[in-house]
Design goal:
By secondary structure, the chain is mainly beta. It is built from two helices and 23 strands. The chain has a 17-stranded antiparallel β-sheet. A four-stranded mixed β-sheet has the order 9-10-14-13. The longest helix is centred in the last third of the chain and has 9 residues. It is globular and about 75 Å long.
Length: 379
């Protein structure tokens, strides 16, 4: 990595990196090591920043990457694939006056398999007294990975999953608006998001694959629109007491009318902590938890050997809380007491979107820094 500052207003950052991950089978009897998986990436990156006094900052740069993937999950006649990617970007951060700030940027990406993608963004903030208003728009994309394009693998002996070298990029348009209000010891925040997803990359059932037995295959679909509203209240007091409450609402507008997203529409998190210091003793009490509503969604199921049927599922709502009491004696002795899952919640049915808990648990810990403890006691 190379860092340079040609002047007080100019900064240059240049870096080269390599990442390689291998997996192999080693046969001890024959002292034979057979490589069957390799993912290797070579990355080149450059960044230049110029500051125009205190009101404007320009940032420009680019990245280049060579991505190589060898896998036993490719066909024997095609055991590896690679691709070149590059991007070029520029951004301006402009403080117009004491009230307005605007950030605008453009980005151009190149992928050797299908060409170029353009991604602009713009964000603005208006502030007056104790109020902050923000708005932003950005266009983004996610390119298909080598795995999604070329891999062919068995999914736990249930069905096969096939790649698709005709995949296009998954594209998004994102809008957000937010407001913040500060009042004495309090901060109120309200944020709304709306994301439009097109050409979403997912797997669908194809009955013609695997010699007519059917299999999953990566494809582009119409995509979904996502909306979310987040609200939070935070308070800090001079007595050492702090608290924060956050609420989120999430909704998916499925293109085909089937909501397959298992995200819970309502969620609430809260935390209360209190800290008090004495001469040789500190007490810190923290209570935090979350409350998640039930989720109703469609999930693909086995339909006489074909995974082309959707059934309605419901995941139960639940709440989890944790109480921690931390005590510091002098400057080097720490005693920690913790009760996790305070209300002793146990799922009726364990699933991938439920907490893996068997009920309430207790933890106690004691740490000591002998050197610091001895110095503190001598004082």
């Amino acid at each position: 990595r190379y860092l340079a500052t040609p002047s007080e207003t100019d900064h240059l950052d240049f870096a080269i990196s390599t990442d390689c991950y291998d997996k192999s089978n080693y046969y001890t009897r024959f002292n034979l090591d057979l490589l069957d998986y390799r993912n290797m990436q070579h990355i080149l990156r450059g960044l230049y920043t110029h500051e125009f006094e205190d009101y404007l900052t320009i940032t420009m740069g680019g990245d280049g990457m060579y991505d190589y993937l060898k896998s036993y999950q490719f066909s024997h006649s095609d055991d590896h694939h690679d691709q070149w990617t590059a991007d070029f970007f520029a951004q301006a951060d402009w403080t117009i006056n004491t009230h307005w700030n605007i950030i605008a940027g453009i980005r151009e990406d190149y992928f050797s398999h299908y060409g170029w993608e353009f991604s602009p963004k713009v964000a603005a903030m208006y502030k007056v007294e104790n109020i902050r208003l923000r708005g932003s728009y950005s266009k983004g994309f996610r390119a298909p990975s080598l795995k999604e394009m070329y891999m062919d693998f068995n999914m736990a002996n249930i069905f096969n999953i096939y790649g698709n070298d005709q995949l296009e990029s998954e594209r998004t348009n994102s809008l957000s608006l937010s407001a913040e209000y500060f009042l004495s010891d309090y901060c109120f925040t309200l944020t709304g998001y709306y994301n439009i997803i097109d050409n979403e990359i997912t797997t669908t059932w194809d009955p013609t694959l695997s010699d007519g037995r059917g299999a999953m295959k990566y494809r582009n679909i119409d995509g979904t629109n996502l909306a979310s509203i987040d609200a939070s209240v935070m308070a800090r007091y001079d007595c050492g007491l702090n608290w924060k409450v956050c609420y989120s609402f999430f909704h998916e507008f499925a293109a085909d009318g089937l909501n397959t997203n298992d995200a819970r529409p309502h969620s609430l998190t809260a935390q209360v902590d209190w800290v008090k210091n004495w001469k040789n003793y500190q007490l810190n009490v923290v209570l935090n938890g979350r409350l998640l509503s039930k989720a109703t969604y469609y999930n693909i199921t086995n339909n006489n050997g074909s995974y082309d049927k959707y059934e309605l599922y419901t995941s139960e709502g639940y709440t989890m809380w944790k109480l921690s009491i931390n005590q510091r004696f002098w400057d080097g002795l720490m005693l920690s007491l913790c009760v996790d899952n305070l209300l002793d919640y146990k799922p009726k049915r364990y699933e991938y979107n439920t907490p893996y808990t068997i009920g309430r648990s207790y933890n106690i810990g004691l740490t000591a820094d002998i050197d610091r403890l001895a110095k503190t006691i001598k004082k």
